[in-house]
What does this fold into?
Amino acid sequence: MSNENVCELENVCSESGVVREEKSDGEHEEGSVKVQLIKIIAAGVLFVASFFVPVPAVKLAMLIAAYLIVGAEVILGALKELFTEFSIDEEFLMTIATVGAFAIGEYTEAAAVMLFYSIGELLEDVACERSRRSVTALLALRPDSVTLRRGGELVTVPVEEVVPGDIAVAVAGERIAADGVILSGETAIDNSALTGESLPVLCGVGDTVYGGGINTSGTIEIKVTKPYGESGAARILELVENAQEKKAKTERFITRFAKKYTVAVVALALVIAFICPIFTGYAETFTSWFYRGLTLLVVSCPCAFVISVPLSFFAGIGCASRNGILIKGTSSIETLSKLKSVALDKTGTLTKGDLSVVSVEGGEDVLRFAAYAESRSTHPIAKAIVKAYGEKIDDSLILESSEKAGRGITAKVGEDEISVEKGEDGSVSVMKNGEKIGSITLADELKPDSRDAVKALEKLGINSVTILSGDSRTAAEKIAEQAGISDVRANLTPEEKCAELERIMSQSRGKTAFVGDGINDAPVLALADIGAAMGGLGSDAAIETADVVILDDRLSRLPLAVKISRRTMKIVYQCVAFAFLTKLVIIGLELCGYAGMWAAVFADVGVTVLAILNSLRALNYNVKK
It folds into this structure.
């Protein structure tokens, strides 16, 4: 495969996020494939027809024409790479091998090698495009424009101009432009491109909707809460665009190996072609040894390695994205496949994160003071208290506010200093000017799939599942019992979570993952071998820090991600082993005089095509949700 095609595969995730440009690129790619196909057909007709032409000069002319139709671009590419980049690649190997075959009178084989090489290139391009589209189809999440209600009129503006507070109107079949809250209307939102969930979600007044979802039925009006650049869809696109920046060790090794391998092959071919005839003492002619050298160039092309390995990784990323899992780079796939230990945050990860106030001790003032103190926090406890209070917060009364992650919050409310502190029994204590005035008890629910997710992880050979929670031991142990987890470490600050995770990692026989969703989880997400963030409820800090983003907040996606990564790595190793062993066998036979140029064509083009088809199995891997 040409360097341009390899570069396209490696850089595909960094292409523009603009739909119109992406569509134009797709049309250009499709046109290029058609032109390439026409060239191959024309060259193939000339090649086959040459077998039925009795006049040698005419036959030669037909073979040369067939060769140039499919080979001119390859030759020019090889020369450009040689004289501008001062390097040699598989196109250079093919050029030297086929030109050399012409030089020794092997016209038919020279034309056949270039023709079959071009067929292999075409199949590779189609395979790469198929894998590319599996991920870049996410670019459709971005609408070009949005309809807004301004001054009683409907106006259409570019999506970049949407700001919080705008009233967006989405009709049936239209993609929602930005995150917001429904003001009027009812509908079902298709979030499959965002979360991988196939069933539309019923939404009405007061419900939150996310940019990138599709309004499938009635017209709705949405009060925008975030500009497009901060919406869920924009975050997903940013993650996808950067997905290839973190390359796996296997992929980096193959890239380095291919460069040195190609130089070594050329050197070995020169030895066989020019040195062996002098020192072997065999009866073979110089032409025979030269032919072997040319055959070695063909059989040794690193196409199968260079394209099948990154394509396998990229197909794995595509498969994961179609199942609501964003994996940030091929290195994360490789690490996930070696996972042996998992540490979990509790609130928002194992549980719904939708806390509710169960009881209040100390009177109505306790809830009011707590609501004012917590009103500027995004923590689930704060949201639950403010929701339970139910009245409008006068922000002017809050003079200052400071939050200590994992411990509580202190605020100056009017003339009083109010502190809300987490207790040991799952409740929070409310302090006024240093004196406790009451307490609030809250409760959370286990997510429906959490227990099954823990069982699935254990079946995959994950030998350690631990809860690392900043919540009280009582609350953490209650959830752990429901989820089927025996190892619980509670009352942890973010620093203590990091320390506990380091202990787990030191004891693990493989890689360790941490799954969380809050701002206070960002440090431990960064520390873990694999940080997995909940993309729906999760904070921006957690999502940006994580290596894996679970778009629909379902913990069961984690074992699914492990399955996909292990499947992908298995396919990578299969491709490398198959290509290497096949080439090794053909090279051995060729050096012994038992294989010619036709066998070399199979070892190059045939093996490459088979490796590519195998790598695409990572994209088509059917998994149960």
